Amino acid sequence: MLWNTLLLALRSIRRNLLRSFLTVLGIVIGVAAVITMVTLGNGATQAIADQVASLGSNLLIVRPGQRLGPGSASAGAPNFKQADAEAIQSQIGAVRAVAPTVARGMTVVAGARNWSTSVTGSTNAWFDTGNWLLAEGRYFNPAEERGGAAVCVIGETLRRELFGGQSPLGQPIRLKTFSCEVIGLLEAKGQSAFGSDQDDVLVLPLKTMQRRITGKQDITQLRISIKDEAGIDQAKKQVMLLMRERRKIADNEDDNFSVLDTRQITETLSGTTQVMTTLLGAVAAVSLLVGGIGIMNIMLVSVTERTREIGIRLAIGALEREVLLQFLIEAVVLSSMGGLTGVVLATGASIGLAGLMQVPYLFDPGINLLAFAFSAAIGVVFGFFPARRAARLDPIDALRHE
Amino acid sequence: MTPAEPAPPLIELRGITKTYGRGAAAFQALHGVDLRIEAGDFVAVMGPSGSGKSTVMNVLGCLDVPTQGSYLFKGVPVESLDRNQRALLRRNYLGFVFQGFNLLARTSAQENVELPLLYRGEGRAERHAAARAALASVGLSGWEHHGPAELSGGQQQRVAIARAIVTRPSVLLADEPTGNLDTRTSHEIMDLLTGLNRDMGITVLMVTHEPEMAEYAHRIVHFRDGKVEHDERRGGRT
Predict the structure, then answer these.
(1) Residue of A nearest to B89 (CA)
(2) How many CA atoms lie within 13 A of A343 on its CB side?
(3) Which segments of chain B are extended strands (E)?
(4) How far off is chain B from A393, nearest CA to CA, in Å?
(5) Hey, are the CB atoms on B104 and A312 less than 8 Å from each other?
(6) What is the pLDDT of residues B86-109, one digit of tens each?
């Protein structure tokens, strides 16, 4: 009986193929939009997680002030000293390396070309904590670090902008008043989680940076890598205690510095993306609802248009329940087919757009199933009213209907 | 029922009245109709428009219920049945043929004829075979896969008749079956109905306003002003 009704519904859909297609277009687009949005959102979240992981999964970043995020305001909060870095290195056993860092945006010049980049002063530990590898050349040697030599290691973007296709090794780059010699080129890393280009970087020994550029002994950031990833929470606590002590913060006062770990950064950033994903998904879900109303509209038109057909069926001996079921199943079959088409369309669109946006394509069975089930449910909800109307028609009136 | 008692007639109407609307706008279509129809008969219902012949056909076809009176179908009082029970009665015992053919558009002859079997829940193979046989019995072998738009009026009415008889009903109700057809085709359809009545023993009730077509029947019931005016039994044409 159910099978036969299904057969009837399929026959009816086949008889009005174009109209059936136009009817479900709303559902197709709605389902496709929801799935694509959520899939791309998941991909973006994953991409951020991957990029943060490329910072090093065992990284702690200590900054003055409390605000999270780029361009952290550190008003009132003092910077760090070289001694802070040394204390962390020597007093906390889990620490592998500490990179005291000072960074500043500057315009650098090589030959006739110039480029605005981020100039970072740090020690060799900086390469270690940031998981940087050399493409060419070498890192700083101890003498260069101690003596504040005019040497630098540059990122791939800077090389491309200043030297084009040539090797940068041994070439001079001018920063304001002095020149440094390029001794190393870093392997490319790509965009950072904050959206900035990580390869747009020039690294000087810390002493060189302090003497020639900032003119101060201050350090604005401590990058700490931990030996064992499992010990990161413990190490973070120790670093915070040590820093409170060194910065003479009383027990009732808040920290005037912050310690971030990469997991925290990942969580903060993916939190934002997830909110966006939910929002876009919700907007798309509204279009799914509109699609459902479209189905109801067409089913009502269909009932009116097929009044005579319903009359014939009733005269032949169809029960009220059978006519109801026929139209209901027709609506459900229609919307499910729409849902299925939407799923297929979404898969194509997601793969295409993920490639375009350079985020990974992650197939999410949950959202696919949910969107499909929702489309079928829409068929039931919006198909019921027209179906009941059809089932309650008077056979004599229906047969007389022109 | 005891054997001494005679079997009830197939159809018995007792004092049927039918009123449409209510109050001042009320219109009484039937004014007390009594009618007995035995199984195997071939009855033509005639009368001018407004005489109540269509109303009585709707009542006989269990599509409508009388306002008063009793309708016994095989001894069962139809007025006591609900909508779904009447639908089941139509499904199992009645076949309908209409003036306007009333086939499903864009649906092949075969599928149209299979429709009542679908509602009876018969299997695919049985449906197929029964539909082909029914189409063959109305002379439409080879036309199974043509839609109504590809068939002539006479052919469409044949498909409709095949659909009506595919369930082997007790009664075939035909409402002006030749109303939309030319004379020659009309006679072909009437020959077909006569054959079904004679060979398959199907009781045929037919409304018509053409005396020429009524002549095929064994009995002609004339209606006027919602009442049986004249009931004439004749030999019928063969």
Answers:
(1) A317
(2) 19
(3) 11-20, 27-37, 42-46, 68-73, 76-77, 94-97, 171-175, 203-207, 219-224, 227-233
(4) 11
(5) yes
(6) 999 999 999 999 988 999 888 899
